[in-house]
Write a structure and sequence with these properties.
By secondary structure, the chain is α/β, with parallel strands linked by helices. It contains 16 helices and five strands. It has a single domain, classed as Phosphatidylinositol Transfer Protein Sec14p. Helices cover 50% and strands 9% of the residues. It is globular.
Amino acid sequence: MVNRVAIALAAAALIAAPAASFGNAPTRRVTSAATSSSRLNAYKIGARTEDLLANNRGVVDSLAKSIDGMDGVDMSDVDLLRFAMVHPEDETAAAEALQSAIEWRKTKGKQIVESAKAAVDEATADGGWNNEPVRSAAPHSDLINKYITPKAVITTSTEAGDLVYVIRASQIDDKELMDNASIEQVCDFFVYVKEVHNIIANKRSAETGRICTVLFANDISGVRKTDSRFSKALTSSTKQVESLYPSLAGPTMILNLPLILQAFVGLLKPLFPKSVQARLVFKRAPVLAGLKELTPLGTDKDVQTKFVREVVSLLPEQA
């Protein structure tokens, strides 16, 4: 039983899919001071973008010079900041990480990057969020969207503007999915979603003056064993995501773990990537547990508000 749940937990921590609703980010600029740090993922949620840029200005400026005049490369200060925070005291390492990401964006990832940008532009054309263009533009969407739906996976927003990525893995028929799509196709699908998250998060960070992060809320209700092919796709996409989108992920919350398994939390943590372990939180989330499916998080404003406030209340103090 423990092994079965552990496998599902590992999958739940890594899975990604297109947002069903991002909501509207606040446009008010942050005026109150917020404690920040230049260390990777060490900044507090709500830290001022301006402060983080100031703390990392030397590395950001160096990165900007390295891409100056490079055809087809469009990166804002916030984009560069996320790479700077990975190596705040090592410009060479930061530049190497950035160059590797740029190479992917200009070659293998070019179609993913271009599709995500066009989809987000269309989704936000009327000032709100129309998710259909984003789902439709996902790689191999004709194969995958029928299995990964807003019933099981959704992205919403806190009232402050952070993204909350919610997943209930038990509602994804991963075996059927992998019978119809290859590991590489599923991997590309997941990376595309991170590109969408990255576009939204960086845009909000610049517009609101508050650095935007992505909170992971993994609902373990109805947990079951994960198809091994699905796990391989998740592992492959995660390796890419960590290098392509640094300093984007906030705490990973494992929600509604059955009480009988609480004693095994210590055994489950090592199953997650080291970069996730430091931000891992196990909590109960009654609002989320009370939903038969996740769809209301994108369609019912009252439910959405109750849930995101629940998530914020469960965040660790240092977040």
